[in-house]
């Protein structure tokens, strides 16, 4: 379980760090600014989760692999930016993967720390949206999570699979894979096909 | 005391969640984005307070009514937006009420956790301004608390009543009501009559 | 050691509070808004550090001198704004000093709380950039730390001196002074002479 959590966390850190680095390069930050934004985007979701459940010091601060993975992701993006940028909408892809990793890892870890199932699912969602939210705020944009089609909802769906599986006694490895894939697929397809939820129409403004 | 704290917290969560939902509708977010911003605006003040005083996991994460109240407030606002919007300056009204609820609940809870009176009053103020601050940041605006006439000061006044009452041994129920009303009245009247504190004049810019 | 930490922390709080107050005056906030931004800029770096290492309640909340120093710095800036503003780029000067104070205090305190050397250096850097980051976000600007020439890197250098000195058994007072001066000098000279690190060039945008 500990190993699974570590791998999920590091996976989420890696892809969110890439999304942070891409945003940093687009804003023409220098190499160190790229690394700072990589670390922030890649670890703030998990750090927030750890603070909220009382896992102090947070894993990303206590253990060096989180820093290593962030620096690696930031450096790769910086050096091979042209290749990474060939993906269409590269931030979106890495962001969706980070959302999936952290939504399931957040839910798992919250269950380990004894939170009730409803809150564990919610905390999974929060973990998943935290890193991208800070990345967007730091570059002064309304966070994607509030704007994008089926974003936080995809995170909640992934986290819910993990939590429901836990209640039903299904092995964590299975629910993690299913939940993660569901979250990733939902988010990517919503983006691709423009799926969206209804929007309130303010009378004027 | 626990019941009083819970009611104050939930009251603050409800009205701040409405203010978050209104801001979300104005920015044309979808229904889930509305709920996310409702939860964020309604709970971040209390969550910050709990992290700072070491009450982990924070009440808003550990107990489901906070989530329930946030979702309820967000849904009501989404569905009956036209009615809510008939108030003039609806964000301001709900924001002022949220400030009042959280200023007194923040001060109460800080006293329960053994902080000294001065810091308990300050923490009440911080609790009161946290949710609105995040709501404004997430929609990329300079937080109201920094701009508005007698905002944080109203929160501090409300919290100070609770703390001074505590030192003098007056029952918490009374000081809570007086402090909350004072805070709400100060903020609303400052808004209505344009009361404001002096502003420094930068020589140029 | 405790006294050294307290002095470093209060020094950092004082100069960051001034930088926050200057930013607040430039945005024409009222006197209370100036004090709020002073407190936020002056204490959020240290509060974040304390939350991350599990020192709860954070020093800035538990002890009144932090509040006192912030209010003093904000009041001085408000009253004598014209004098403070005679410095060229006054925010930059106070910001660089705050970075230096908090980079070394953050590293010291992380070592006291048993973090490993690498993470202690990183945490020093994070402590140093936190207050300025929030100040910039609250006034809706891309944080200086991401934009500025050799900013976070200067913080890391200062923190690294403290950590390496600790590993080698050199007295904390010496490494603190050397680390703080190195950080301050690096940042100021980078600003003066336009030293900068390489920037990635996005193909288009």
Q: Topology, please?
A:
3 copies of one chain form a homotrimer.
Chain A: H1 2-26, H2 31-53, H3 59-62, H4 64-79, H5 81-84, H6 90-112, H7 117-138, H8 144-147, H9 152-168, H10 172-193
What's the alpha carbon Rg of chain A, rounded to whole Å? 16 Å
What general form of chain A does the structure show?
globular
H/E topology pattern of chain A = HHHHHHHHHH
Subunit arrangement of the protein = homotrimer
What proportion of the residues of chain A form beta strands (DSSP E)?
under 5%
* Low-confidence segments of chain A: none
Instruction: Specify which chain pair forms the largest interface.
Output: A-B, 36 and 30 residues
* Strands of chain A, count: 0
| Structural domain tally of chain A | 1
How is the biggest beta sheet of chain A arranged? none
Helix content of chain A: over 70%
Helix/sheet category of chain A: mainly alpha
Mean pLDDT of chain A: 89
Number of helices of chain A: 10
Distance between the termini of chain A: 51 Å
